[in-house]
Amino acid sequence: MAKATEVSNGAQIEMGKPYFCQECKRNHTKGKIYKEHLKFATAIEDEENPDEMVSNNELDEENGEAADYDDNFEDIEVEENIDFLDTEDDLEDEENPDNDEIADDIDDDDVNLDNGADACVEAVKKLPGVGEATLKKLIKSGFNSLESIAYTPPSIIQEESGLGEKTIVKLIKSSMDKLNIGFKSAEDVWEHRRTIAKILTGSQELDDLLGGGIETGSVTEFFGEFRTGKTQLAHQLCVNVQLTREHGGLEGNALYIDTEGTFRPERIIQMADGLDLDHKQVLKNIIFGRAYNSDHQILLIKEAANIIKEKNIKLIIVDSIIGHFRSEYIGRGTLANRQQTINSHLHDLLRLSEINPELAVVVTNQVQSKPDVFYGNPLQAAGGNIIAHGSTIRIYLRKGKGEQRVAKIVDAPHLPEGEAVFSITENGITD
Ligand code: ADP
Ligand code: MG
C-alpha cells in the first residue's frame, strides 16, 4: 500500500520531517503537506491497489490468525460521499450533510489568535519571549494552552511548530512553572482524581464496573471479537457525552475517527431518539473523520488538538485503532517499525487526554487468536504490549446470550477485576 511517506520518489521520509516532494516540487513541512499529500497518496493508492481487502486477508493467513478476523472487513465499503473532518462545515452546515471536502480549514494560514477559547491562549501569549510570530506558530500547530506545551516532548513541538530548540525548552520550562508541575502530595492527586468527570455508558452495570462510567483524562480501550459491541458502544458514547452532567454526560461534543467505515448516523439517530434528544442536534455535535490509512489516522489525531477547545470536544473515539497498521505493515520485518508508529500514535492520544482533563479518549481494538496459548484466554488484543501499555483502562468484550454482551476489566490502575453484562438494543446500550 502506498503511504504518504513513500510517495516522494522513494526518498526515505520520516513522519513529521520536512522533505522535498517531487510531486509539488517543493519542500514540505509537517501539517500542510500531509493534507495535500494524503489526497495525492490516496489517489495513487486507489489506482494502484484497489484491492486492499485482499491484502488484509492475505496478512491474516500469513500470520496464522483466526479466519473469522475477515468478518471485520465485511462492513468496509467504498463510499463516494464521505464526510471528512471539517471543522467549520460539519458543525455548521446542516444543509449539506454529504460535504465531501477535505478539511482545509484546520491548516488555514490565517490563524485566528483570539478564537473563542481564550484564556488558554492568553496564558501562552503571556509566557516570556512569546511574540506574535511565535504565538502564531504555536497555535497553528495545536499548542494553544500551557498544558499542551508543558506535556509535549520538545522534539515533537519542534517538529510540529518549526520553532527553535532553545525557544521550546524555555517555553516548556516556563509553562511547567506556571502550571506548578512537579512533586505534589497524594492528597492533591486525590483532589484531582475526585473531580474526574465520567460519561455514562447507558448500562448501569457497565458503569459500575467502570467505577462510574468512562473516565475523562484517560484512554479507555474496548477490545473483542466482531459484533461484540465495540462500535455500538462508541456510537452510544458520542450521544451520551452530549447529555447534561445530571444525566451522565459532559455537555460536550464528540470527535469520531472511523478507520473501518462502520460509522452509521442511523444508529446515532436511533440512540438519540431513545433518549428523547433532538437527533438533528446530536448529529451536528459529532465531528466525523474517516481515516483511509494509518498516516491519515495519525494526522487526524494530530489535527484534533487544534479543534478540541474550539469545538468543545469532550470525547474522542478511534474505531478501530489498529486495523490500518495491521494491513499496511506487512510481514515481520516491519514489525518493530509498526510498533513504534503505533506507540507514538497512542502517546498522541494519551497526551491529548492529559492536556485536556475534560476529555475522554476511547479506542477499540480487534482481537486475534494466539494459537500458541494452551490455557487461559487465547484471545489477545491486536497490537500486543504496545497497546496494553498505552491505554489506561482496558475492557474485554465478548458475546453473551442474544443481545447480551459481557464486559470484563482486564487492566485498570484502580478498579477491581470484574464482569458486567449489558445489552445492545435498537435504542442503544442498556442493562
Ligand atoms: P464490533 O465489536 O465488531 O464493533 P458492533 O459494535 O458493530 O460490533 O456490534 C454489532 C452488533 O450490534 C450486532 O451484532 C447487533 O447485535 C447489534 N446491533 C447493531 N445494530 C443494532 C440495532 N439497530 N438494533 C439492535 N442491535 C443492533
Ligand atoms: Mg466495529
Helix content: 25-40%
Instruction: Indicate the proportion of strand residues.
Output: 15-25%
Give the termini distance in whole angstroms: 42 Å
Number of domains: 3
Tally of strands: 14
Tell me about the biggest sheet? 10 strands, mixed
Low-confidence blocks of residues: 1-11, 41-116
CATH superfamily of the largest domain: P-loop containing nucleotide triphosphate hydrolases
Class by alpha and beta content: alpha/beta
| Distinct small-molecule ligands in the complex | adenosine-5'-diphosphate, magnesium ion
Under CATH, the topology of the largest domain is which? Answer: Rossmann fold
Number of helices: 17
CATH 2nd-level architecture of the largest domain: 3-Layer(aba) Sandwich
CATH class term of the largest domain: Alpha Beta
Cα gyration radius (Å): 21 Å
